[in-house]
Design a protein that fits this description.
Layout: H1 18-22, H2 36-63, H3 69-103, H4 110-139, H5 144-183
Helix pairs in contact: 2-3, 2-5, 3-4, 4-5
């Protein structure tokens, strides 16, 4: 199962993509089963991606002396808290409510939900690193050089987190959306 670990996989194995073959990503929006729950859920994923991209851009702008340290710190504090809290809440709802219901719809892909659950635990570790490095940046606001150096470390860790989060979100979307399109989502929306 280590080849399926979030940090090392390049996607879900073909055996877990059987419903995606029936419901390709490019056809989702036109499918009659593409409902408000799917739209909301995909919008949440898009929001997480945008927040990470914005924080990375802000860090790069600070490193290039194009963003004032106080402005960067305020944005990092606001968006960092929104990101961590939102992602924890999102994963809790998925793990306790959505995944258990959706996993029973098709036995061929049931193990995929175990993989996604393990991803959430792996992401928690990376979120802890995110919080530590973000706090390190914020605690060094009074020393421009130290803040700059801490921001470089933060940016590098954020790039790694962005890659892992994108892998997870893509795999999650490609497993879950086809399940909902095929079987519906009673009592979930």
């Amino acid at each position: 199962m280590t080849e399926l670990a979030l940090e090392t996989r390049s996607g879900l194995p073909d055996a877990l993509r059987v419903l995606l073959a029936e419901y390709p990503r490019l056809d989702w929006a036109a499918d009659p089963g593409f409902n408000d729950l799917i739209k909301f859920w995909l919008d949440r994923h898009l929001m997480f991606r945008r927040i990470v991209a914005d924080m990375k851009s802000d860090a790069e702008r600070l490193l290039d002396a194009q963003l004032a340290p106080d402005h960067f710190a305020g944005r990092l504090s606001r968006y960092g808290g929104m990101f961590v809290n939102g992602l924890h809440e999102h994963h809790t709802i998925e793990d306790t409510y959505y995944f258990p219901q959706l996993a029973t719809q098709d036995k061929r892909i049931e193990v995929g939900f175990d993989i996604l659950d393990k991803d959430h635990h792996a992401i928690d570790g990376h979120l802890n690193t995110f919080v530590e490095t973000a706090n390190d940046v914020l605690q060094r606001r009074d020393d421009a050089r130290k803040m700059h150096d801490a921001t470089g470390i933060f940016r590098d860790k954020l790039v790694s987190l962005e890659r892992l989060l994108d892998r997870h979100l893509n795999d999650e979307e490609e497993l879950i959306v086809p399940v909902i399109l095929k079987f519906g989502a009673p009592d979930m929306g």
